Amino acid sequence: MSCMTRNKNRRSFGASAPPFLDYLKDILRRYPDGGQILKELIQNADDAQATEVIFIHDERSYGTESLWSSNLGQYQGPALYAYNNAVFTDEDWERIQKAGRSGKINDPNKIGRFGIGFNSVYHITDVPSIFSSGHLGLMDPQEEIFGDKGFWWFLIEPEDQHTLMTMHDQFQPYRDLVSLVGKQEWCKIIKNQYFSGTLFRFPLRNKASEISDNLYDSDKMAELFDSFIADADLSLLFLKNVSSVSLIHISEDGTVNTRLEVKSSEPTKVLLKKEDDIEGLTRFKGITLNSEEQKETKWLVTTCTMKESKMPKLDLLAKKLSFLPRVDLAFPLDEQRDCCQGRLSCFLPLPNNESNKTGLPVYVNACFGLTDNRRHIKWQEEDQKHDEHALWNELLVKEVLPQAYVMLIQDAIQLCQQSAFPVSSLYNLWPDVTQMQHKDKWLNIAVEVFHHLFNENMAVLTLARDETQFIPLSEAVIPCNGPTKSETLSAIKRTLVSCGENLVSLPATVVRAIEAYAHTYPKHVTPSFLREVLHRSGVHNISKEDKLCILEYILSDGKYRELEGLQLLPLSDGSFRSFTNKEEDTALIDNKEFPRILLPNCKNLFIPHDLSSSCRNHLRELAKLEVFRVINIDKNHVVQYTRKHLPQDWKQMKKRLATWDTSNSHHPPLDWLQEFWRFLNSHFSELSCFRDIPLIPVNPLSDSQPVTLAKLQQKTTLIFQKRGHSSLPDKIAQLLTKAGSTVVRGNVWLKHEDLETYVLNPSPKSVMKVLMNLDSQQIIRDVKSCSQTARQELKDYLSNLNSLSGREKDLLIMLPLFQTMTGFWVAAQSKQALVLTSGPDVLSGLPVPDSVIQCATEADRRLLQLLKVNLLGPAEVGIILIDSIKKGACCSEETENIMTWILKHGDILFSQNQSLKFKCKELRFIKVKGEQKKASDFYDPRIKTFKIILESDFFPPPVYTETQQMLKTLTDLGLINKEADMTPEHLLHATTMIEEQKVNSESEALQRAQVLLEMLDSCDLLSKFSDVQLHRLKMIKWVPCNQPATGKQEIFDKSTKSCFYSPEEIRHTMYEDIVGEVMPVMGKLSDRVNTKLGLKRLPPPEKENIAEKPSLLQVRLRKKCP
C-alpha cells in the first residue's frame, strides 16, 4: 500500500464546494491575466505584514524519479515562485482553502487575503503549492493527482519529515528556492519543523487543462514580469508593510539574474501630523528601482483618515463594508513626470487605463470598492445607484479627498518654509483644470480644493520677493496670465518687487484657477496696473533688459496714450527716451521696405533691431497715432534724415566728391550704399530730392580702402567709364578727369531709371554735356596741354555727335582740336577748313594762312560740319593763295611755289573752281625785268617760230614750264601759243630786235626776219596794227632784201646776200624794172601783206631812173595791174 493511499483519508485537503471548477473558470474569465496576478500576491503578502516579496521565474526542470505520485511528474518543469518573509497562520491555511471568500471582510486593515485575487494564479498553473510555517501543501482543483482537492505535509510529523528529506526529486524545487530566497537550509527547516517565510510554487501550464487552456512559456513569463515592471515604482507607494519587491529569473542552466529590485523607504526626520476632524500624516517616501538602470524617486505622501462621527453616512458604510475611510495622496518629486497623469490605486496601482487616470498631479489611493475583475472603481451609475461600494467610493472622493488634498498643499507649504520641500514643486501639486475637461468627477474635486484654498483666506500663495513667505489671495497681486514670455514675467516680477508690491509667484494654471473659482477678485498684474506703478515709482532703477520686457507688456493692451512721460522708449544705442512729442525723444522704426541700413548715421535713433516682434508691432501702431515722436519711417523720412544726418565731413565738403572710409565709425558701413540704391529703385522714379548728397561710387566698393563718392548734381560732370556695351576711351577719360570731370568706374549694380541725369552713359553726347558743365577756360587749357593723340581721340569721339546746340557749338569751336597747314593746333573759330581727302594734295610748303585748318579725316569733316565751318577744296585754297599774292602777302618764292602747284594741277583745280582760273588769268605772277606780268603776256615756248623771233623774256620762266601740264595750264591762263595771236607790240619788238641784231648777228637776224615774214604772210597779223604801229613797222629796217641791182634773186633765197630794209624802202617786184636799180624789191608776200606794208606803192619820184622815164613806169604799171 503506497504512502499516498495510506494517508489519503487522514490528509484530505482542498476546496469543498462541488462546483469549484466552474466557479474557478468564471473567476478566470472575469479576472485579468497579466501583471495584476503579481499585484494580488503582493497584496496578500502586505496583509501578512511581510516586508519583502520576491518573484522567481525558474526555467529549470527537476527529476521525476522520486515523486509522491507519478502524476506529479508533469509539474516538475519551469515554474513561477512567489516568496515573502511573512508566515502563514492557522487562519491563513484555513482561509486559502475557502475559494472566493476573502478573509478581509471583518478586518478593514487587510487588503484581501486569499480571496478572488489569489485565484488569479490559475491563469498560470493547475497545481499551486504553498510552503510556509509548518506545512507544505499542494492544491489540485481537478482532483487528478491525489483523488481529492490536494494534499499537505506537516513538518511536525516524523513520517512527513522523512518524506520531505528523502523524496529528493519531489521537493528539490523547494529545497533550491528556500536556499536562494530564504537563505535557509532545507535540513534545518525540516529539523526545526518550521519555515520562517512563505513560498508559493506555480508550475507553468504547458498543456491545456480542464481549468484553462492558457499556456505559459518563457516569453509569456517575460511579458508578465514586464507588465509589473511598468508600474514597479508605484507598487510600494501605498503598501503598509511591503518595502521590497524583486523579480528574479533562473535560466535552465541555473544562472540567476535579478531583473528588478524595487525598495521603499520612509525617513522619520520630517513627519507632519494633524489631529482635527481628520487625522493626517504627511511624510516623504523614497523609491529605489534597480533594473537595467538604477532609478530613485522621492514622493511626498499624505495619509488622511476621517474621524468617526464626523460623517455618519460614511461611518455607517465603513462598518458595514469593513472599509477604512482613509485617502492617501502621493506627489512625485525629483523626476520628470506628466503632472496631470495621476492614477488611482487600491493599495496597489490599478491598471493604467483612462478610467483610472484622474488628471490630477497626485496619485490617489484608498480602500475603494472595485469591480469584480478588480480593474476599475465602482461609481454610482444607472445600474449601480444603490451599490454600497459605489456609494462608498463617491463619499470617499467627495468628502475625504478634497480635505486630504488641501492638507497635502498646506503641509507642502510648511515643508517649504522648513526648506524640506522645493518651492519650485509646490504649485505642481495644484490641480490644472485645463487637463481635466473630460474628467468631470475629478474636476469637481479640483474645484472643491480651490474653494478651500481661496475662500478660507488660507496663506497659500508664495510672495515673489521671498518664496518662503505665503499670503492669502485677498492680499496678493496676481501675476499676469496669458501667453507672456518667461523673461517678461521675470522682469515684471523684479519690477513689482522692487516697487514693494505683494506680487505672488504663480504658474499660469493657478492663475487660471483663481480667475475661475475665487469668490473675490484680487488685484491682477495688467498693463494698466503696471503703468500706474511705473508712473508712481519711476523706472530709473530698472535694468535695460527688464525695461524692454516691461515695455512689451505695457504696450500689449494698446492703451498707448497712458505711456506719456515714461522713459521706456528704447533706442539701439541702449538708451531710453521718454514717450513725449519732443524732438530729443525721437525714435525711428524701420521695416522690411525701409530698413535701418538706409540711415546708418541715424542708427542711434532707431529702436533696437532685436526688439521683440510684438513690441515692434505695438510701437508701429503707436507711431500711427502721432502722439509721440515715434516715427514709422517712409521714403520721405529717408530723404529727410539722410540729408540731415550726413557725416560731418561730408556736410562741410564743398567739392563734388567725398571720401567714404568704412573703417571710420562716423561713416556708413559697406553694405549701406547698395541697399540705398535698392531703396531708390523701389521708391523714386527721379532723384532730384537727393541732389548734393554723395551717393555715386566713383570706384568699386571695397572694405580695405576708401571709396570716393560723388554728389548728385544737376549740372553733372559725372560719366561712366563703361556702361553696357559702351565704354569711354582712356585718353578721353583722362582728359575729362584733368578738366574736372569724374569718371565713374565699376559697380555694375548701380542702376536707376533717372541715373543718367546725374551720371552720363559713355557717349559723345554725354562727353559734350560734361564739357558744357565744366569751366570752359579750364577745358581749353587742358586740351591745349594734352597730347596730340588725346586731342585726336577726343576729336574723333566727338565727331560721332549727331547735332550740337548753339552753346555746345560755341564751346567746341573754341577748343584747339584742329591743325593748321603748318601743323599748329588751333580752334575752329573763324576758320575755314581744307578738305585734304580731295585732290590734289596741297603742298606743306605753300603759304596757306592760319585761317585755313586741316580737314584731314572723315572725323574732321563730320565735326567741322557740325561746327558749320566752311569746308574748302584745293581750288578754294588756291583762290585764297592767289588773293594773298594779289595783296602782296607772299614773297616771290611763295608766289612761285603757289603758282607752280596751281600750274601742275591746273586741270583738276580749274575743274573744281572756275573762279580760280579766272583769278589766275588776271594775276600778274611772272616777274620780268621788274615788271609783274600775266600768263597771257607770254608765249608758248613750244612754238618754234616764237622761239626764233622772240627773246627769252617773252616766255614763262622755266620753273613754270617744267611739265606739259604746267604748259597746258599756262595755255589755259592765256599763254600765247598761236602765231595769229601775236600782238603788234611784240611784232614791232621782234622787228626792232632784227634791226639791232643785223649788225652783230646777221644770220640770226635774217632767220628771225624770214620767220617773221612767213608769219605775217600766213596770218593776218597786220590787221591788228594801228596806223601808228603800222607806220613804225614800215620804218624799221627788219625786212631782208637783196641790194638793188643785184639781180632777180628771190628774197628767201638764203644764198643771196641780203641787207635789211624798212618796208618803206622796199617796193614790190612789180617795180623791179623801174626802180630795181635803186630800190630793193620783194614779190613773194601776199597781196594782203604787200598792201599793208605799202610795197605796192609807187616808188618815190626822187628816184632818178624812175623820174626820167615816167611814161615807161606807167606802161609797166598798167601791165602789172590790168
UniProtKB/TrEMBL annotation:
Sacsin/Nov domain boundaries: 19-255
Pfam families: SACS
InterPro entries the UniProt entry points to: HATPase_C_sf, SACS/Nov_dom
SUPFAM superfamilies in the cross-refs: ATPase domain of HSP90 chaperone/DNA topoisomerase II/histidine kinase (SSF55874)
Protein's recorded name: Sacsin/Nov domain-containing protein
